[in-house]
Write a structure and sequence with these properties.
Layout lengths: L2 H7 L20 H7 L1 E6 L9 E4 L7 E5 L2 E5 L20 E6 L6 E5 L4 E4 L9 E3 L8 E3 L9 E5 L4 E6 L4 E7 L6 E6 L6 E6 L3 E6 L10 E4 L4 E6 L5 E6 L2 E6 L5 E6 L6 E8 L9 E7 L3 E6 L4 E7 L4 E6 L5 E6 L4 E6 L2 H12 L45 H7 L3 H11 L2 H13 L3 H7 L2 H14 L3 H17 L1 H6 L1 H39 L1
Antiparallel strand pairs: 1-27, 2-3, 3-4, 5-6, 6-7, 7-8, 9-10, 10-11, 11-12, 13-14, 14-15, 15-16, 17-18, 18-19, 19-20, 21-22, 22-23, 23-24, 25-26, 26-27
Length: 535
Amino acid sequence: MAAADLQSYFPAESSAAVLPPPRRPRPSTPESNFWRSFRKSQLSPSFILPVSSLDFSPTAPHDLAVAASASIHLLDGSSISPKPYSPLSSGFSDLAHSPSFRSDGALLAAGDSSGLVHVLDPSHSRPPLRRLRAHTRAAHVVRFPKSPNDKLHLFSGGDDALLCYWDIPSETSVLSIAGAHKDYIRAGAASPVNTEIFATGSYDHTVKIWDVRVSPESNPVSSFNHGNPVESLLFLPSGGLLATAGGNVVKLWDVIGGGRLIHSMESHNKTVTSLCLEKFGDGSDDEQSRILSVSIDGYLKVFDYAAFKVTHSMRFPAQLLSVGFSPSGSAWVVGASNGTLYFGKKRTEKKEIVASVASEFDGFVAEPQKRALRPSYYRYFHRGQSEKPGEGDLIVKKAAKLKLAEHDKLLKKFRHRESLVSALRRGNPNSIVAVMEELVARKKLLKCVENLDVDELGLLLGFLHKHATTPRYARFLMGLVKKVLEMRAEDVRSSAILRGHVRNLKRMVVEEIQVQRSLQEIQGMISPLLVIAGR
């Protein structure tokens, strides 16, 4: 084939390759810059069961309470890491639900699937301070009032459709409304401006506003239909607007206007499971507030309710059940159905400044600044221990730690018989008699003697044979010998070793009687001589 034919068969390629047009960078907006300032991370797998609900403390350092499995997990608000005494599992016999901090952060309340409402101390892992009993089925809603003016009440709702308003100190229900809804109560929110007003949402599609001051036993103050089973409620800061989530819809309602629907947002493809409020800066301007919503479709949506539009979204590889935003604005947290906790922590400005300066000046390494020690750090409690004393310093020596013997440790654990046996095997008569006297004070000595086996009883009889006539123990031990022989007579008859110990005891008693008689004879001879010498 000729070269001309080849050129006609294969068209000549252009000398310059055609490249695809470059991708346009996403426009930078204040909203996108704000969310990019968070460094994303996760705790995986954090918990065995789904993270059903969570709540941030309203006071610094804004610790995080997470309900998962049969316990409440506490995480440090600044590092999103578990507290040393977490989880708070004492007292929960079933799945934990709906943790809620009091307005001062000093108390934490949560419900469980048995219907109990627990009031806990979030600073220690100890049994609940109060247990509130009224629900016959799972208590999925527990909320403290938002206002700091009321620290003595909370309300709860459960799958038994019972609504309770509690007085915490007396553990009594001030208000109890049976059949408050026609189905499970799964959502609740307290008004941020009034301690007596709160809202509840149910799987019967209704949302009801309650005021404990106005005929609470009859009808609610207001009621409206969301149109789907209600999963979450959220009062906006003004207290006049309420956001409800159910199905794949988030709706805004005018509470003051009698439950008038303001806006309906359908940005999720599946059921919306949780809502929370997020604010820019100090949150003083309502226009800068956002509603965060999560769904089992795996998306977190940021909704600007002032402009009625979604301003940001994030995708996660799991179904999302709960969401929270730190009041300090430094972290957001999302709980998933697989037990994973996704979170974002805001980058500090100091690190960004150091990185930018280091990139501009070649070879320059910024000296890292030491972090200020805080009481939440381990090194805080060890500060100053490496310092050497000065000439004028008064040195206070640390008292040596008292080392307890094995029998003392067993006594502290109320293992009385094992403590007695441990002291007998050690062979120190002072320790043995001290343990016996302690058991007498606890009214457990005879019970321990009764529960001794043959070998341990042999140890006891051997000790009594050796020390029962010692003057400082004689009065106590001779009475114990009598009790032991009366209580364990059958065991003594059935064991040759124990019979040998008893023969030794009998021989010891006979010898002691002879010694006492000899001493009395000597006393009889010496007494007249002393009387004569005294004249």
